């Protein structure tokens, strides 16, 4: 025991001394000295060793309570090793060797120092038990009920269907179905299961080959797409496969993500036509000009040799109703929902080549992971470009095509925002302009499509950005449906250096403010702000305040002096040493040292050469799963996640060498994600974790929370999810774990969520956030569920369990439907 304590004490002394030099807590060094002295006394077989260790135990408990209060996981990290060593010191084989105390008595757990140590351990045990049943992270409250007779938005969608990614173009993720309630949800059972047969692991698959789809339910069918881009139609009542379409994606794509989050649907209303003010073609003289646009035809890159949509597939000449599928090789394909055949009357043989007029054409450099927006007349498409690979990437242009013919109606290029007439052949859009990889929303009555935008690559270096980039980067932009021109723009981050692109689909809802109805847009962000804006004007409904931001970016870059903060904010408190965490005292100490070695001035600390802590990290408080809003109660169900990352600039010696990871790479493979060829710095970006791979910040890392959209109040918040599928031992500790995948809400007062990193789908009471029901999934549930009404009259909830590469959740190919028992 003396040797063990001495070794542990030396390790603690080394780390504790280092932390003191870094101006951190001196407790670890003091504890190390006590541990070393205890070891020396044990070696000399002195009973005083137990007295000293009793003092160390009670001092550790006092320090832990002072820093963490009655919060179980922070207390456990500080005291577990100390407590277990104390138990070992009380065993007879230790106490028998410590000699005698007064009156010839031998030391035991009930005499002398043994009694003192027993008492301190008992006190620590009581404090731990009290902390175990205490939850300081929970906020209790009740969301309001319906605010008058405000009908939910339907946009022509039947109550029992789910026609778009967010059910309608409003992106609410809300269903008017009320068959499932808090009183009966616990009776949900599996109605059917379908397996796609599409799993990651094929040659060339990136790590982030993920099954993130939110299916559509139209009539009596479900429609979904798989990671490798197959489109499948299922019977909504039985899960039986009706048809499958394979677009035969081009091989050897160096992709960062391989996924399909969903399809888009057009009902084929009679008399649909392109707006008169938005011509399907434009003469060359109408094309935008200027230094940002390559106008020389010989500079236009050669087109990719893309497959034909109808190769090996059924062909349908005319499709009144259409499904639209975006592909990983840069196409938009139109399919007949009835037969799965290719609608050859759309575009060129049933597809649009999204590489048309693109600069910097390279396989895998531009593609759509998210569904397009469909209106009566248009299909509006954005796309993703490679992050942090180079400064010479394709454009982030937004394009609108005639929904029937596929003709280009307008294009909005943020690098040349005032010219929206279709670009003629031979000219290209602005390279590397901010792109929209997420899902847009639409209000056809107001005539606007709402586009969440990302950044110009690279994300962490902005010295070379022009005025248009500074205006549109990390913003939500309202574009006129008829012309594509900007109606308004609201920027969520000024001069973004943190990859805080706007990741979530905006949710459109009408709010009752001071007795009047206000058309609102609710925009969640990675940094934790939820902006509630007037969707007609872009002006804030809930106040937005510009607050001072940390300065001192690496020159010649700069940092915006202020950043916008909403009244409805999920911004976490700044991290400090007391909030560092680990499985033991030792890796917690290592995290404190790591924190002190990084630059950290709070949120918006700019990237640095020494390494900067980015908290919240670019994983996002909110990501592509967005939130769910209830248009009748005017509330939001949210899933905030908190993980810190480290961002470090690495000087580049030239524009071609693989610098961050070095070495050779296989031909055709994707460069390291943070190389930033063409920029002066590469970037190392990684999670802020301990030597054991655990987050350095203490839990919880994930919550569910309910907010009142009229006031901006966060009414309730509860940690959510367990460590069952993330720990080496499958113990379901309710720590609150990260979430990736969106929630849905229903008129029955129940919300559903499957995106936590433990493999469950859960149901919650919307009013209080209380967990009502959960069911085990065969893989990670990183997708947004849907709910719909079957022909048998039952309300179904469908969950996709496919896992996620970068989260490390188990891969799968399951589509699972739940329903109440028949006759219940």
Outline the secondary-structure elements.
Elements: H1 2-21, H2 27-43, H3 48-68, H4 72-89, H5 92-95, H6 112-132, E1 174-175, E2 189-195, E3 208-209, E4 216-218, E5 221-225, E6 231-235, E7 241-245, E8 257-258, E9 264-266, E10 315-316, E11 322-326, E12 331-335, E13 342-343, E14 351-353, E15 366-367, E16 373-374, E17 378-381, E18 384-385, E19 398-402, E20 408-412, E21 441-443, E22 448-452, H7 467-472, E23 475-480, E24 486-491, E25 507-513, E26 516-524, E27 530-534, E28 544-548, E29 562-566, H8 585-597, E30 612-614, E31 628-630, E32 635-638, E33 645-651, E34 681-687, E35 703-708, E36 714-719, E37 744-746, E38 750-753, E39 760-765, E40 771-776, E41 786-789, E42 795-801, E43 814-819
Parallel strand pairs: 1-37, 3-8, 10-13
Antiparallel strand pairs: 2-43, 4-5, 5-6, 6-7, 9-11, 11-12, 12-14, 15-18, 16-17, 17-19, 19-20, 21-22, 22-23, 23-24, 25-26, 26-27, 28-29, 30-33, 31-32, 32-35, 33-34, 35-36, 37-38, 38-39, 39-40, 41-42, 42-43
Helix pairs in contact: 1-2, 1-8, 2-3, 3-4, 3-6, 4-6
Describe what you observe in this structure.
This protein has 824 residues and is an alpha+beta fold. Helices cover 15% and strands 24% of the residues. The chain contains 8 helices and 43 strands. The strands form 13 sheets. The chain has a 5-stranded mixed sheet, with no helix packed on it. Strands 2-43-42-41 form a 4-stranded antiparallel sheet, with no helix packed on it. A hairpin with a 4-residue loop joins β11 and β12 (331-335). α3 (48-68) runs antiparallel to α4 (72-89). The longest helix has 21 residues, at 48-68. It starts with a helix and ends in a 5-residue tail after the last strand.
């Amino acid at each position: 025991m003396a040797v063990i304590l001495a070794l542990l004490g030396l390790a603690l002394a080394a780390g504790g001394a280092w932390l003191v030099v870094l101006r951190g807590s001196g407790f670890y060094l003091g504890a190390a000295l006590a541990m070393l002295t205890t070891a020396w006394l044990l070696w000399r077989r002195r009973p005083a060793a137990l007295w000293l260790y009793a003092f160390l135990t009670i001092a550790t408990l006092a320090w832990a309570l002072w820093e963490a209060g009655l919060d179980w996981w922070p207390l456990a990290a500080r005291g577990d090793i100390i407590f277990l060593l104390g138990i070992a010191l009380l065993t007879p084989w230790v106490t028998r060797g410590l000699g005698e105390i007064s009156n010839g008595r031998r030391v035991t757990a009930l005499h002398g120092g043994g009694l003192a140590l027993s008492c301190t351990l008992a006190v620590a045990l009581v404090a731990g038990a009290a902390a175990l049943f205490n939850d300081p992270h929970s906020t209790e409250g009740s969301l309001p009920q319906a605010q008058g007779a405000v009908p939910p938005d339907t946009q022509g969608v039947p109550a029992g269907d789910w026609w778009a990614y967010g059910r309608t173009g409003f992106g609410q993720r809300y269903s008017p179905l009320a068959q499932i309630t808090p009183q009966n949800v616990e009776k949900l059972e599996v109605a059917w299961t379908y397996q796609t047969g599409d799993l990651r692991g094929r040659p060339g698959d990136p790590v982030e080959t993920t099954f993130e789809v939110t299916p559509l339910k139209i009539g009596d069918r479900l429609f979904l797409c798989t990671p490798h881009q197959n489109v499948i139609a299922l019977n909504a009542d039985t899960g039986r496969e009706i048809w499958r379409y394979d677009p035969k994606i081009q091989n050897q794509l160096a992709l960062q993500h391989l996924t399909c989050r969903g399809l888009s649907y057009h009902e084929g209303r009679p008399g649909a036509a392109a707006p008169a003010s938005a011509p399907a073609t434009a003469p060359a003289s109408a094309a935008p000009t200027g230094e940002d646009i390559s106008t020389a035809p010989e500079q236009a890159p050669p087109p990719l040799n893309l497959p034909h949509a109808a190769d090996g597939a059924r062909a349908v000449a005319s499709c009144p109703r259409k499904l639209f599928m975006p592909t990983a090789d840069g196409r938009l394909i139109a399919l007949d929902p009835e037969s799965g055949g290719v609608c050859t009357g759309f575009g060129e043989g049933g597809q649009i080549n999204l590489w048309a007029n693109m600069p910097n054409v390279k396989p895998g450099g531009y593609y759509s992971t998210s569904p397009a927006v469909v209106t009566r007349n248009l299909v509006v498409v954005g796309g993703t470009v490679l992050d942090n690979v180079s400064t010479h990437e394709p454009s982030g242009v937004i394009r609108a095509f005639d929904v029937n013919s596929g003709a280009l109606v307008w294009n909005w290029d943020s690098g040349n925002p005032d010219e929206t007439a279709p670009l003629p052949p031979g000219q290209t859009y602005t390279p590397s302009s901010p792109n929209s990889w997420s899902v847009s929303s639409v209000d056809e009555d107001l005539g606007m499509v709402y586009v969440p935008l990302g950044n110009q690559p690279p994300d962490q270096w902005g010295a070379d950005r022009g005025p248009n980039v500074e205006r549109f980067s990390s913003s939500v932009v309202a574009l006129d449906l008829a012309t594509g021109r900007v109606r308004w723009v609201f920027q969520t981050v000024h001069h973004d250096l943190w990859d805080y692109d706007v990741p979530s689909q905006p949710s459109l809802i009408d709010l009752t403010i001071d007795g009047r109805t206000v058309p609102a847009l609710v925009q969640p962000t990675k940094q934790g702000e939820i902006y509630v804006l007037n969707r007609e004007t872009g002006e804030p409904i809930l106040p937005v305040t510009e607050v001072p931001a940390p300065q001192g970016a690496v020159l010649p870059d700069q940092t915006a002096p202020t950043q916008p903060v909403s009244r409805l904010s999920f911004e976490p408190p700044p991290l400090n040493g007391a909030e560092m965490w680990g499985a033991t005292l030792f890796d917690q100490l290592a995290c404190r040292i790591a924190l002190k070695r990084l630059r950290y001035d709070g949120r918006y600390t700019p990237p640095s050469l020494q390494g900067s802590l980015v908290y919240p990290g670019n994983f996002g408080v909110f990501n592509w799963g967005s939130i769910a809003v209830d248009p009748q109660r005017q509330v939001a169900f949210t899933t905030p996640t908190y993980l810190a990352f480290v961002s470090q600039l690495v000087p580049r010696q030239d524009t071609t060498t693989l610098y961050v990871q070095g070495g050779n790479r296989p031909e055709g493979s994707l460069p390291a994600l943070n190389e930033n060829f063409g920029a002066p710095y590469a970037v190392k970006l990684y999670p802020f974790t301990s030597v054991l791979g655990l987050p350095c910040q203490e839990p919880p890392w994930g919550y569910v929370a309910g907010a009142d959209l009229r006031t901006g109040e966060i009414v309730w918040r509860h940690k959510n999810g367990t460590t069952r599928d993330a720990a080496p031992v499958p113990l379901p500790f309710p720590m609150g774990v990260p979430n990736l995948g969106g929630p849905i809400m229903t008129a029955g007062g129940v919300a559903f969520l499957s995106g936590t990193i433990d493999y469950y789908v859960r149901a919650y009471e919307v009013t209080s956030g209380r967990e009502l029901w959960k069911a085990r999934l065969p893989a990670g549930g990183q997708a947004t569920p849907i709910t719909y009404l079957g022909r048998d009259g039952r309300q179904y909830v469908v969950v996709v369990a496919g896992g996620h590469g970068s989260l490390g959740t188990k891969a799968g190919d399951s589509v699972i439907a739940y329903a109440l028992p028949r006759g219940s």
